Amino acid sequence: MRRQLVRLHRWFGVATALFLLVAGLTGAIIAWDHELDAALNPSFFKARTEGPALSGLELARRVEAADPRMQVTYLPLAAEPGHTLQMMVLPRTDPVTREPYKLDFNQIAVDPATGEIQGQRQWGAFSLARINLIPFIYKLHYTLHLPFTGGIDVGVWLMGIVGMIWLFDSAIALCLSFPSLNAWRKSFAFRFGRGGYALTFDLHRSGGVWIWGLLMIVAVTSVSMNLASPVVRPIVSMFSTLTPDPINNPEILRAPKPGDSVLTRERVVQLAQEAGKTQHLKAPPGGIYYAEFLHAYGVGFYETGNDHGDMGLGNPWMYWDAATGKLLGQQIPGKGTAGDVFMQVQFPLHSGRILGLGGRVVISAVGVAVAVLSATGLLIWLKKLNARRRSSRNAQRMHKARVTRDAGRAPARPKAEVAPE
Fold first, then answer.
1. Which residues span the membrane (predicted)?
2. 378 CB neighbour count, 10 Å cutoff
3. In sequence order, which residues have a C-beta less than 8 Å from that of residue 181 and are 6 or more positions away?
4. Rounded distance, CA 119 to CA 202, Å?
5. How far is CA 253 from the centre of its chain?
6. What are 234-283's pLDDT values in tens digits?
7. In which region does residue 264 sit, left (phi positive, over 0), alpha (psi from -120 to 50) or beta (all else)?
8. pLDDT at 421
């Protein structure tokens, strides 16, 4: 049985090592995505003009009026003091060509005092330019920048499958790390004095044992981040009812009708303020998102600058039909069924934000550890592979030597006798 587990661990590890190496390093970086992005691109984050800031709704109105080609899809409702207000945008449809206008950006940074656009970029572009670097790394973390193929997000599925293999392989690794009760101390030790292969082996085995619980959490949540709707939610629903919402259950959406109008952002924010009071939410509406393909609005409730949810289970979100204003669903942290709470906790755990700043430090360190475990696993495999190859070559040489030796020692055959005439 142990031999089979060793073989499984070897091939699962080899198959996923490079993916986990990338995921670990990028995860360690994007735990600080906002801070690093702001440090690299101060002109995109710091407002040029001092003075009273306009509301996010007014800024969005001015931006759309100045450039009718684009439509604001997400915006914070207020800017942080001294910072730009960053909006996500999409092209509108050209009434002449019936095709979307061509825009080479999907995110803009707006001066909150004037409404002037002082920066723009294509978030998630395949680019190492400073303005694009952190979004590039962020998207690399969960998609590897692989394209959609046949309507399938190949990168998201691939990294989700890698997460599932990693989860299974982590359980195998724990079993292999404790071959016997008498040798359990070895599985926690690091032979720093030995160096070389011995230390490499200990970093891989003992390092994984020390943080095994954290690795399992990151593995489970990585699957949840990438494959929530097709994999995780169906499994969770077998044990607990999940409350439908328009993001994960589009069947609850009303099909748009010809002539449907779209509610203004101002009206949706008003609905959100009323709903927030009904739910006794402490935070005000902090950001609004319009999903045209869902024909729905989403509103997040958070204080200015806390759009990621820097502590606990994250921010509340509510969703409304874009034409009727009907409440379609809500996600209130800590409320709902056991399954709802399980799904709510996935991103806060994966990002470490459930524990605030300390949690982000831990997750960043775990990301580096995952990269180290992947690299040491590959080094161990390569060393053993080379050893097997040398052993095979030596065996072949010995075999040839024996054949040659035996041939040299063999008695000569007598000459054939010639019959007399």
1. 12-32, 154-178, 209-228, 361-382
2. 16
3. none
4. 48
5. 27
6. 999 999 999 988 888 887 887 777 777 899 999 999 999 999 999 999 99
7. beta
8. 42
pTM: 0.89
Contact 89, 73 (CB under 8 A): yes
The sign of the dihedral angle between the CA atoms of 315, 318, 319, 320 is negative
Q: How many CA atoms lie within 13 A of 37 on its CB side?
A: 21
- Looking at the DSSP bridge assignments, the partners of residue 148 are 153
How far is the C-alpha of 53 from the C-alpha of 78, rounded, in Å? 8
Among 100, 74, 232, CA closest to 156: 232
Give the residue among 123, 120, 121 at the shortest CA–CA distance from 140.
123
- Cα separation, 136 vs 144, whole angstroms: 9
Q: Name the phi and psi angles at 404, rounded to 5.
A: -65, -40
Nearest residue to 369 (alpha-carbon basis) of 381, 359, 377, 358? 377
Strand 327-331, strand 296-301: pairing: unpaired
How far is Cα 401 from Cα 403, in angstroms, rounded to an integer? 5
State the Cα–Cα distance between residues 216 and 222, nearest whole angstrom. 10
Query: In terms of residues, how long is the chain?
Result: 421
3-class DSSP assignment, residue 73? strand
Helix (H, G, I), strand (E, B) or coil at 180: coil
Task: Show the CA angle centred on residue 196, arms to residues 210 and 382, nearest 5°.
Answer: 85
DSSP 312-325: TT---EEEEETTT-
CA dihedral of 341, 344, 345, 346, whole degrees rounded to 10: 130
